[in-house]
Each structure stands twice: as structure tokens, then as C-alpha cells.
Amino acid sequence: MEIIRLDPGELYIGTAPAEVHTVLGSCVSIVFFHERLKLGAICHGRKPDHVCRPATTGLKVCRELGDHVRCSLEFMLAWFDTRGVPRSELEVKLFGGAMMFANSLAGGTGLGMGKRNVDTAMEFIRSRRLHLTASDVGGPWARQIVFFTDTGEIRLKRYRKSAQELERLEQLG
Ligand SMILES: [Zn+2]
Fold first, then answer.
1. What HAMAP family is this protein classified in (predicted)?
2. How far apart are CA 48 and CA 119, in angstroms?
3. I want to staple 48 with a disulfide (CB 3.0 to 4.6 A). Which of 120, 131, 144, 154 is the partner?
4. 159 CA from centroid of ligand 1 (Å)
């Protein structure tokens, strides 16, 4: 089985079995899975939203697509729509959105970014009436998740470390 490392700002859609690994701090990953067709998708958004207009008539790809939670969700849902997957059959899972103080001070993501990312994802899920079947969000924990695109299974570990520290540990093996 192929092993995919998903970095911040990336998005993956799988039509064959794969194992997707990603590490989350204040970022969020949203997983879409369709059981019968064995289709799985996962994003890793750093920021909640920005001003861009999705097309209603086709699949328009935003320049900063993967970075933004809302754009990633619009794209993933449109992709499943074009495959004829009924929205009522989609399983949606949401992870991450930690309150990473150390990260924020070191530059980067800003206090409250985790919560804003989660709020944006939840608002999208509610407004499209999607089924949220699992979530693990907030708190001071970095998370490592592994998504199996053929079964929808998620393995999740929480760490009392920043995502950057965790990345370093991962690279060491
Ligand atoms: Zn956009």
C-alpha cells in the first residue's frame, strides 16, 4: 500500500488503497469517505478562509486551495459531487485545531487559529448537511493521524508537543 505524507496546505484524493500520514497543530484535517466506492479524501488546511469565489457551474480550483479550510472543503465536495456520490452517503471526519501557544508565538499561526479552523469546518459541514461521524479537535495537543483511504479507518495519536517538534521526531524515525 502506498504511504503518502500530507504536508500543511496539501490535499489528497484516493481512488486506490493508500495510507495517508499527517501531523496537525492548529491546522485541521477533514476526511471524506465513501464506503461503497472506496473513495477517500483528506485535506490539511492551515487557515480558515479567504476571499475567493467558488464556481457554481463547474469545478474551479482556487490558487490557495489547500491552505484554506473552506476552499479545500468546497473542492473535495465538488469532486465527490462530480463522481455522483450522494452527499447523504459521505462520512466526514474532523481533526486538529489545537491551541498551540508555542507555535503561535514562534510565528506563525496566531492565537485562536485552531478554533477558527474548526469553526469554519463545522459551519461548512452543517450548512451542507453532511454527516460528521468522528471528530477530535481543540485542546493543547498536536495530533498525528493516519487515514486508510480504502476502509475510512483513522488512527490518531495525541502528543503534548508542537507539530513542529513532532515533525522533527518523525523525521528521526
Ligand atoms: Zn480560495
1. CheD
2. 8
3. 120
4. 31
Cα angle at 110 between 156 and 44, to 5 degrees?
A: 35
| Centre of ligand 1 from the C-alpha of residue 29, in Å | 16
Query: What total of structural domains would you count in the chain?
Result: 1
Q: Give the Cα separation of 126 and 144 in Å (integer).
A: 25
Chunk the chain into consecutive blocks of 10 residues (it has 173) and report each block's average pLDDT, rounded to whole numbers: 95 96 95 96 96 83 93 95 95 92 50 90 98 94 94 93 62 47
Q: Which domain holds residue 98?
A: 2-172
H/E run at residue 13: strand 11-14
DSSP code for 47: B
Q: How far is the CA of 10 from the centre of ligand 1 (A)?
A: 13
